[in-house]
């Protein structure tokens, strides 16, 4: 019985830890909607990331469209993910988003609403810190 309780405690602690990492808090009450049109194919935003809180954006895209993103900050490297409801998990696009010399694109695999999240890496983030950043996205 004692080993069973210890196992339950370990599983519960592991579950809480994983949930804390997977469910980062959004700084915005809801994703900031980006609207693209034939005349408007790019979007720019300047913002602040506080601690391990994310900033979230949403846009509508069509399967096969390509997006180019750039996220820059003064000092800290930020992570960037993209998610669609049909995807099992978010895709890390940090490598194509945080290198200003890189001109890689991400091809949208589905038609529908996408969500982009931007945040600081937990090992870099400091308590009560904030990070200014700029974000731009182009769609073709």
UniProtKB/TrEMBL annotation:
<feature type="signal peptide">
    <location>
        <begin position="1"/>
        <end position="22"/>
    </location>
</feature>
<keyword id="KW-0732">Signal</keyword>
<protein>
    <submittedName>
        <fullName>Inhibitor of g-type lysozyme</fullName>
    </submittedName>
</protein>
């Amino acid at each position: 019985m004692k080993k069973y309780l210890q196992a339950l405690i370990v599983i519960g602690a592991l579950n809480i830890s994983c949930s804390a990492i997977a469910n980062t808090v959004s700084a915005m009450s809801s994703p900031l909607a980006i609207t693209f049109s034939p005349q408007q194919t790019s979007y720019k935003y300047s913002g602040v990331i506080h601690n391990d809180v994310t900033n979230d954006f949403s846009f509508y895209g069509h399967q096969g469209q390509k997006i180019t993103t750039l996220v820059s900050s003064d000092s800290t490297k930020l992570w960037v993910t993209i998610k669609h409801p049909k995807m099992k998990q978010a895709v890390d696009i940090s490598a194509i988003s945080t290198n200003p010399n890189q001109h890689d694109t991400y091809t949208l695999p589905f038609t529908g609403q996408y969500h982009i999240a931007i945040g600081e890496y937990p090992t870099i983030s400091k308590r009560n810190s904030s990070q200014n950043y700029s974000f731009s996205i182009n769609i073709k």
